[in-house]
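Key result, reporting period 2: structure in, sequence out.
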């Protein structure tokens, strides 16, 4: 539910593990930086690493913690270092809502998903993040999905994710007109290590698409 007209597509870069990559993303004007707390990810950081990386993020840049069906106690430990939560597993609306921070719910685009219903179900979410579906993997697959499956006028802001890169982001922004876009693999040299040129090119292509 968007209250005001959108002027530009917001950008979230996800999966930071290195301070120098954070500095580059901030310099590029990226709106939100994601930290994967899920330990099975090749991009995961623990609470101590999160604290150190989070301290590097200046004011007015949103620090997002990504969790996949993890214990509430662990999430509570991370809260002081975050501004927003990203639930990327099978968390229920009640489970997402029990913390003191705003949150987004990631939905994987399996064939039978009903996004209108999910938007009602997760009505306390600030946004819905739409990602590709690969059985057995919660996300970060580097795969795209058919963007035409996203209904127009969904009751929640859409954060488009899944296999985005400088090569396809302009098409994605023009076709979907999402509130924001989120990328991890498409701006990396290797898992958790971001590529300065890919990050800059991604931001440039979003801006170009926004102006047309
Ligand atoms: O990045 C991960 O390792 C990850 C692990 C578990 C769930 C989600 C994960 N990342 C999120 O997945 C999407 C798409 O990533 P990609 O651009 O296709 O690599 C994005 O929202 C990441 O935040």
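The corresponding designed sequence is given below.
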């Amino acid at each position: 539910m968007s209250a005001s007209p959108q002027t530009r597509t917001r950008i979230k870069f996800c999966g930071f593990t290195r301070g120098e990559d954070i500095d580059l993303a901030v310099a590029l004007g990226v709106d939100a930086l994601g930290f994967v707390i899920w330990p099975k990810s090749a991009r995961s950081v623990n609470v101590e690493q999160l604290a150190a990386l989070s301290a590097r993020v200046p004011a007015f840049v949103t620090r997002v913690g990504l969790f996949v069906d993890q214990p509430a106690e662990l999430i509570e430990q991370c809260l002081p270092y975050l501004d927003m939560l990203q639930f990327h597993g099978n968390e229920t609306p009640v489970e997402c809502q029990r913390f003191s921070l705003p949150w987004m719910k990631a939905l994987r685009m399996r064939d039978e998903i009903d996004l209108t219903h999910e938007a009602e179900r997760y009505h306390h979410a600030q946004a819905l993040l739409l990602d590709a579906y690969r059985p057995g993997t919660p996300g970060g697959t580097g795969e795209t999905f058919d963007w035409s499956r996203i209904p127009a006028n969904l009751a929640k802001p859409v954060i488009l994710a899944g296999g985005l890169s400088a090569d396809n982001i302009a098409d994605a922004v023009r076709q979907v007109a999402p509130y924001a876009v989120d990328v991890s693999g498409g701006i990396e040299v290797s898992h958790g290590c971001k590529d300065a040129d890919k990050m800059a090119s991604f931001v440039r292509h979003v801006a170009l698409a926004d102006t047309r």
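The radius of gyration is 16 Å. DSSP finds seven helices and ten strands in the chain. This case is discussed further under Risks and Mitigation.
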